[in-house]
Design brief:
- The structure is a single chain.
- With 163 residues, this protein is of the alpha+beta class.
- It is built from five helices and six strands; from the N terminus they run αββαβααβββα.
- Strands 1, 2, 3, 4, 5 and 6 form a six-stranded mixed beta sheet that branches.
- It is elongated and about 90 Å long.
Length: 163
């Protein structure tokens, strides 16, 4: 009789513990957003939508700018409007590794990349997503950016990265 009472109490404890545990709700997840073409402005400038993540707005904006330039230089922009340049600017294999010091300086905090990309419209209209605060405290922003592709191409030719 005593053993049965102990088993019932243990079963009750286990049942109450299991019923109180539930799967946490997912607030957001990891998404890899690709740069999208929004249009070609006709003066060698492309309008793109790029995503960036960071601990605050400033970091996310800088990351979105870098992502847009990296995609245009090394992958090409394949999503969205077909008026953007689909082919990447740098087509040499392993160019990122071969010119690593050049691109590290180019994309550094005070690098030249800032002169080739700018905001197209006011940032308060851009989409913002907060990541799951239990996993990390990053925010993701989608920004509409103007990228001066012709000027970027001329710089890469001048610096002998492309022909």
């Amino acid at each position: 009789m005593k053993n049965i009472k102990i088993l019932l109490v243990l079963a009750g404890v286990v049942f109450s513990m299991m019923s109180s545990c539930k799967t946490p709700e997912t607030i957001s997840g990891y998404y890899s957003y690709e740069t999208q073409c929004l249009g070609n402005l006709g003066d060698g400038t492309q309008l793109v939508k790029s995503w960036g993540t960071g601990l605050d707005r400033k970091q996310a904006e800088a990351q979105a700018r870098k992502n847009a330039l990296r995609d245009i230089m090394f992958k090409g922009v394949r999503n969205g409007n077909s008026s953007c340049e689909i082919r990447p600017l740098v087509v040499k294999p392993n160019a990122l590794e071969n010119y690593e010091t050049y691109f590290n300086r180019f994309f550094s905090e005070n690098g030249k990349y800032k002169s080739f990309v700018s905001l197209h419209r006011e940032p308060f209209l851009d989409r913002k997503f907060k990541s799951n605060p239990r996993s990390d405290a990053k925010v993701a922003y989608g920004l509409e950016l103007k990228v001066r592709v012709d000027d970027l191409r001329q710089l890469l030719i001048k610096d002998e990265i492309i022909e």
